[in-house]
Amino acid sequence: MEESVFLEIRRRMQSGLLIIREPKAGNLPVDITVAPGSLEIKSCQACKMISFPAEVRIVPSSCRGLQYIVGDGLHVRLQVQADSNTKLISTLSESLKAQKSCTFYCQSCGEIIIKERTFLRVLPLPSENWSALVEEWCCHPNPFANSALHPQNNDCFLGHTYFLVNSGSESHVPGTEIVHSETEHSASERGPTLKSKKNARVICKRCKAMLGETVSSETTKYYVTEMIIQQSGTNFDMLPRSQFVQNIIAQCLVELSSARSTFRFRIQGHDGKVYILMWLLNSDTLLVESMGNSASSSVFTLFENNFRPDSRSSGTWNAVKVLYHPCIKNKNKDLADEWENDIGVHPLTFPSKTCLELLLILSLSNACLPPSLRCMNAFQIDAATDAVEQSLGCLLNSDHSYNLFTAYNMGLPF
Questions:
Q1: 251-271 residues labelled b (16+ CB within 10 A) or e (exposed)
Q2: Model-level pTM?
């Protein structure tokens, strides 16, 4: 039997959706036996036993809603108890500590960008509209109206998608080059002091990846998706590019949604162009899957992913589920304009190449899902829309080391 099994678990609700992928016509009918730690599938031709990971326990008596969906397979809802014991990947705030020596690497090639740098202060940056809030709360003119937050010599300021370091004492960083180019900022970024201007991009000397940009003569902005930061003296761990990007962006979504109750995000490039609209649905999903054509088909494994050499590792994987809309080549322009003017949408800026990488990851992840889960349409079920052109959906792997985006498409905007 070549059936593969997909299990999506909501940890807080202790519920799961089990899908036995489209069986071959010759294998029907099938007899399915669900035990707390295993699943047995019998047909007239063969019998297949699938063991659940140790951290996943099913309540057999809770199975309900059995149905067969053409092109998809057998669906059943059930109660699942699941724990996650996945390895955590440290966040930026955990990696950067005051009084600790850190080394900064280019994530794409491993080149050392900043070697053994110690910061006396590591401080979080305020929200983007902090200056406007000061004006609302002060009974006198804003004293910070014409000032910018720049780190001093031994400071590091942390944002959600970037960090600022003072480079005044470093006349030249060996692993980087400065490239001057014309950058047009989006309408949301334009202001009395931010207009189309020459912007100095900081690129890796070895692989030419864009790492950040100069903010002033003494301040450099580095994007968190382009740099790996480790304590000096520790071994450098090179992560696959796809895995790293998913981890960082998913962490950012979860942190912002928790801190600000923000669930809609506009992913835009450093050039000001909007690439993706994203809506966070939940962050407590666990994913497990058994591939029928794999040598490890008797054990639940993570989704096959062309980007990851270790995609056959077993176990459960936390996930955050989001909806997404691609906005390249003027697609979904009206919706993008609407979200740009919506104060409930939070903009996230990354290098343009990284935005395209993210869009590709979402698309490939969507293709990993059972067909019935690749498209969501909140209102008009019978609407004739192109799920590829109008895609709005995704599921991000979320074990705090967010390694997998599994994309859901949405036929129509909310």
A1: bbbbebbeeeeebbbbbbbbb
A2: 0.79
